Amino acid sequence: MRQWLWSWGCVLVTALVGCAVSEKIARREVPFQTEGDNIKVMTFNIRYGTAADGPNQWEYRRERVFDLIARHGADVVGLQEALDFQVEQIHNALKGYALVTAGRDDGKMAGEHCSILYRTERFKLADSGTFWFSNSPWVSGSKHWGNQIPRICTWARLVERDTDRALFVYNLHLDHQSQTSRFKSAELLARVVSQREPKDPVIVMGDFNMGLDNPAMLYLRRLGYPNAPVELLDSWRLLYPDKPEIRTFHGFEGGTEGIKIDHILIERTTKVLDAQIDRWSDEQGRYPSDHYPVTAVLQLWN
Predict the structure, then answer these.
(1) In this predicted structure, which of 2-11, 187-196, 221-230 has the lowest mean pLDDT?
(2) Side-chain-facing half-sphere of 287: CA atoms under 13 Å
(3) Do the Cβ atoms of 137 and 172 come closer than 8 Å?
(4) CA-to-CA distance for 214 and 229, rounded, in angstroms?
(5) What is the pLDDT of residue 279?
């Protein structure tokens, strides 16, 4: 199923690469640095933009989101909880990215998005899509398994312009309430990832709403589930197997104690060169979102 690709006032066939918008947003240069066999990726739940968060409402914190993403210069960024206007603003604030996105309610614009931003000077889009974590994964807005709202995964196959090497990126947001939904979603995700063609390297990232010891995560990690079709490892834990400061959801309060629910998962053949939980706040102690972004520098190709 091909991804619904769209823009605001622009007609494109393959990807959104920028157009004029009604609202003036300063465009930032993004200091891309990774090259060769290495790729930098980020997963970031940006908190949906219509939440009644008082001083943490989107209009007051969006510049911090723009600045943080730009500063990292990731080749690929996965966003969660992004509403259409947030996706538009982020895309237009950052130079050098194209966008793959779809709303979870209708597969077009409505509802939260799990958007993928990718570096256009390095990658071109070969294929993309969105599926729903449900009994009918290709039906827009479908939901089962106890989750009250649709849950999605948006994916892209990216091809390196200079080498024709490719990778698959899967960006998702799993349910925050139903453990049944999380486990069945993990099973569906594992099947989809295992059936991808061609068998390029894969990165699975997003807000999983569960720690690494949750049974659904153990399934994805193939721990205690020997028949699971994939084995995915957490890039951050590979570098820091014993580090206790792992909290990624902080509710705009900061801190390090708690569960890591935002993950960048990789295959065993991928080497992790760096992994970080970015706990940056501005001089007034204000955070960009209620989640910390997680980054990884990976060696995909040998």
Answers:
(1) 2-11
(2) 20
(3) no
(4) 18
(5) 98
pLDDT, averaged across the chain: 93
In the three-class reduction of DSSP (H, G, I as helix; E, B as strand; rest coil), residue 273 is classed as strand
7-16, 22-31, 291-300: range with lowest mean pLDDT: 7-16
What radius of gyration do the chain's Cα atoms show?
18
pLDDT score at 228 = 98
What lies within 8 Å, CB to CB, of 264 at 6+ separation is 41, 43, 203, 204, 205, 234, 235, 236, 275, 294, 295, 296
| Cβ neighbours around 217 below 10 Å, total | 22
Handedness of CA 219, 143, 111, 51 (dihedral sign): negative
Q: How large is the angle between the packed helices 58-72 and 84-93, nearest 10 degrees?
A: 40
For tokens 């990165």, the residue is 203
Q: Which residue has the tokens 């066939």?
A: 13
Instruction: Describe the chain by its helix, strand, coil percentages, rounded to 5.
Output: 20, 25, 55
pLDDT recorded at residue 23: 66
Quick one: 147 exposed, middle or buried, by C-beta within 10 A (0-12, 13-18, 19+)?
buried
In SS3 terms, 134-192 reads as CCCCCCCCCCCCCCCCCCEEEEEEEEECCCCCEEEEEEEECCCCCHHHHHHHHHHHHHH
Which alpha helices (H) appear in the chain, and where do they start and end? Answer: 58-72, 84-93, 179-194, 215-220, 235-239
- Give the C-alpha distances (Å, rounded to integers) separating 134 from 115, 138, 250: 19, 9, 29
Class of domain 38-299: alpha beta
Averaged pLDDT, 144-155: 97
Q: How confident is the model at residue 16 (pLDDT cuts 50, 70, 90)?
A: very low
At 20, the pLDDT band (50, 70, 90 cuts) reads very low
Structure confidence by residue, pLDDT tens digits, 73-86: 999 999 999 999 99
Cis peptide before 201 (omega within 30 of 0): no
